[in-house]
Amino acid sequence: REELSFIMIKPDGVQRGLISDIIARFERKGYKLVGIKVLVPTQALAAKHYAEHDGKPFFPKLVNFLSSGPVVAMVWEGKSVVKYGRTMIGATNPLASSPGTIRGDYGIDTGRNIIHGSDSVEALAAKHYAEHDGKPFFPKLVNF
Ligand code: CMP
């Protein structure tokens, strides 16, 4: 297997009809879609997804927003997909994102920045195995 990244189109991206454009960008780059699911995240799942931001002032809004409607959760595969996927996505603040990136082309609001991309392979693995965090085999599991 090549590197994997978790990429999610958030409720604003879905509502604005950007699913096909976003998928096309990743496909044309040469990445392979290996998993896709449409779901409305529960508040609990949204909180787990954003656990690293728990305690920050924007956390409650973030969790409410993510669970406000359907999202498209995807796993993309390919060389450097974590890092380059984030290059394609752009900066957290769409107004700091270059034109040509997803957020640079379609957004103006940090809280509604269309899409989420995993920031590391380890983060993806750690999130996937969150229920085992703290167990002795956890570090090995995540670094596998
Ligand atoms: P994302 O890349 O999904 O990761 C965390 C999200 O929190 C981020 O995109 C933004 O949508 C959201 N967010 C809202 N307010 C802020 C803020 N002040 N700083 C960083 N992220 C924020």
UniProtKB/TrEMBL annotation:
Tell me where in or outside the cell this protein is found. Answer: Mitochondrion intermembrane space; Mitochondrion matrix
User: What positions does UniProt annotate as the active site of this protein?
Assistant: H116
Residues bound to ATP are: K10, F58, R86, T92, R103, N113
User: What is the first-listed, main subcellular location in coarse terms?
Assistant: mitochondrion
Instruction: Give any GO molecular function from the UniProt entry.
Output: ATP binding
Q: Which GO terms describe its biological process?
A: CTP biosynthetic process; GTP biosynthetic process; UTP biosynthetic process
Q: Which residue intervals define the domain Nucleoside diphosphate kinase-like in the entry?
A: 2-122
What keywords appear on the UniProt entry? ATP-binding, Kinase, Magnesium, Membrane, Metal-binding, Nucleotide metabolism, Nucleotide-binding, Transferase, Transmembrane, Transmembrane helix
Entry coiled-coil feature ranges: none
Would the keyword Membrane turn up in this protein's UniProt record?
A: yes
Cellular component GO terms held in the UniProt record: mitochondrial intermembrane space; mitochondrial matrix
What family, per the record? Belongs to the NDK family.
Q: Please report the name of this protein according to its UniProt entry.
A: Nucleoside diphosphate kinase
Q: What is the lineage of its organism?
A: Eukaryota, Viridiplantae, Chlorophyta, core chlorophytes, Chlorophyceae
Q: Which residues of the full protein are shown?
A: 77 to 220 of 362
